[in-house]
Specification:
By secondary structure, the protein is an all-alpha fold. It contains 14 helices and no strands.
């Protein structure tokens, strides 16, 4: 998996049960292809949205038990039917990618949460269906983890996102802490910035911790994988704190020793 896409997506993980690797890969390749349409290349917004609409038409073919035209969707259809996966999470992902094309700022945290509901939570929902664990309680825990991971990725990549014209930090919170877009553009990490990011990190950590029970509910290798994912997100937050929230110059990444620490913290809760 490319480090530039879906860093927290457990594709081809050594912990992933072999029986689930093929359907997880099919979901990943769908999400990766749609994400690339929204982000990569020099296409106009109109062309990007049109291509995403073509993906919606392919999902409709799957939902109607028709043969998709694109090979990627033919592979996805086989996994959807074999594992009785719900279609709504796929539509939600496409809605989020379409939003990425046209929406570059978020007025408040509720707007950001609504985006994460469609850009991140569907992945956890689909994985729970693959695990046979898609209960309402488990989905709620998964949503907290997936949204938390998405937000952590935003804070990890403030500079990279700004370079492509996006700011995920809520505008009302930027104003509250006295941080301007120009400050982000210049990568200035001062007291105001640190106060803002301390608040963001604290909220993201609380969200991740609220989903931790899922790591105990899920058993075996998938339970360990979930606990490792949670530990990884929390580890990135700790690295942000250690860097004094200066992700402009010290973007936190997981290194080999971090995986040792994460594994040590991934025993059943």
């Amino acid at each position: 998996m490319s480090a530039e896409h879906y860093e927290n997506f457990p594709v081809a993980s050594i912990l992933m049960p072999r029986r689930l690797r093929k359907p997880v890969a099919a979901i990943y390749h769908f999400a990766r292809a749609a994400d690339d349409i929204a982000d990569e290349g020099e296409s106009s917004n109109e062309k990007r949205l049109k291509r995403l609409d073509e993906f919606r038409a392919e999902l409709a073919r799957i939902a109607n038990n028709e043969t998709p035209l694109i090979p990627l969707f033919q592979n996805l259809a086989a996994e959807v039917h074999q594992h009785s996966l719900p279609m709504q999470p796929f539509y939600d992902l496409l809605d989020a990618f379409s939003q990425d094309v046209i929406k570059k700022r978020y007025a408040n945290f509720d707007e950001l949460l609504d985006y994460c509901r469609r850009s991140a939570n569907p992945v956890g929902n689909l994985l729970l269906h693959l695990y046979g664990e898609a209960t309402p309680v488990n989905i709620a825990y998964s949503d907290a983890i997936c949204t938390g991971l998405q937000i952590i990725n935003f804070w990890q990549d403030v500079a990279k996102d700004y370079a492509i014209g996006r700011i995920y930090l809520p505008l009302d919170e930027l104003a509250l802490y006295g941080v301007s877009e120009e400050q982000i553009a210049q990568g200035i990490s001062n007291d105001a910035w640190r106060a803002l990011m301390k608040f963001q990190v604290k909220r993201a950590r609380a969200m991740m911790v609220s989903g931790k029970p899922l790591g105990s509910i899920l058993t075996g290798r998938i339970g360990l994988e979930m606990r490792m994912i949670i530990a990884g997100g929390l580890r990135i937050l700790s690295k942000l704190e250690s860097a004094q929230y200066d992700m402009f110059r010290h973007r936190p990444v997981l290194k080999p020793f971090d995986w040792v620490i994460m594994l040590s913290k991934s025993a059943p809760y």
